[in-house]
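Fill in residues.
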């Protein structure tokens, strides 16, 4: 038991040390593991009736809150159903397409096959978490959406 735990700790330390010496590229981090959608906020909040909503993730059905993104090193990606499905006979794959990180690693573009294409500013990109920003103006108001994804190990 202790030996097994020591090996896990050592392997983790080696990975962290390797990342410091030879930092992974954004492409390597994205394609290293699948990513689950865990948070989505908007600032300023949007008015819905008499309520101001800032947590868009909480507004989603639970079947949409556990969706999984997988990025291949070839530039293709899939968006899949998580464990909870909106309908029992829904396809596992929600959508797919291609992805690209800008040469300066500040933006991530997703070209979906059926959904609207999206470009996000990369706020944080680490082996365990990705934070993406979508900034836009609507009716003269500047909005920032923050989407968070955790690596599935």
């Amino acid at each position: 038991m202790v030996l097994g735990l020591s090996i896990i700790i050592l392997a983790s330390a080696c990975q962290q040390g390797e990342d410091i010496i030879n930092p992974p590229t954004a492409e390597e981090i994205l394609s290293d593991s699948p990513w689950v959608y865990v948070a989505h906020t908007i600032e300023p909040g949007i008015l819905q009736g008499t309520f101001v909503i800032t947590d868009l993730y909480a507004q989603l059905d639970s079947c949409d809150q556990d969706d999984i993104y997988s990025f291949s090193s070839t530039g293709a990606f899939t968006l899949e159903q998580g464990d909870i499905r909106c309908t029992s006979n829904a396809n596992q794959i929600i959508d797919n397409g291609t992805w690209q990180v800008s040469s300066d690693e500040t933006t991530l573009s997703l070209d979906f096959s059926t959904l609207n294409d999206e470009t996000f500013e990369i706020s944080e990109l680490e082996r365990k978490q990705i934070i993406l920003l979508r900034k836009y103006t609507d009716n003269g108001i500047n909005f920032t959406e923050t989407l968070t994804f955790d690596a599935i190990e």
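Residues 1-10 have pLDDT under 50 and may be disordered.
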